[in-house]
């Protein structure tokens, strides 16, 4: 028995396609909304087999860890609103649930789409993330890019790939990168990491070289160029914000999360470096 958990906020353009992709494998579809104002909830509230829960958003791990215990069934499949479960993945999930063995979780690969174009190179095609797991598991307490806390030898791999339509609009995508780079800088700062001139000067261009040339993002032509450039920009902003947290003399440098709009605000006193 399987609960499909779909975290969302303002995903009117995605949510129905996401739900349709999991209909055949879900015993329960649990939509966890964090304050949609675009009509998302009006679309899903009356759908058969869909249960809606709502709460204010703090960060990804916090929100998911609140939602997971509200699943009805022992196994949870977490699917983001911009993802689609393909037939190959659905069949593999069925096999995994029938014979999980000692596995507590299963990772899956994703096909990443940039403005509707599938990225075949740049490393995007080989990245994996844990999405199927037992309900007692939780995400690491990080602001962004948190992983499920489970031992590697308890983690299997599903066949097939999810479709990940991560960038459907550049303006919206860049707003997300801004939020994520802020949260990544805060996580790094709390872990005792600091940024230097050399991390700012070298890491972004090295990341671009890695993804565009070594991992052959150049073969994805214009979408690949945009993807690798945004990856480099994200790293530049992450390390610039990390440098700002410990070096800036202005009060505006001190970020805290704002659950109401998910944007940083300049109200926190500076930590000691």
UniProtKB/TrEMBL annotation:
Coiled coil: none annotated. Residues 3-116 form the Glycosyltransferase 2-like domain. SUPFAM superfamilies: Nucleotide-diphospho-sugar transferases. It comes from the Bacteria. Pfam families: Glycos_transf_2 (PF00535). Belongs to the glycosyltransferase 2 family. WaaE/KdtX subfamily. This is Glycosyltransferase family 2 protein. It comes from Aeoliella straminimaris. The lineage of its organism: Bacteria, Pseudomonadati, Planctomycetota, Planctomycetia, Pirellulales.
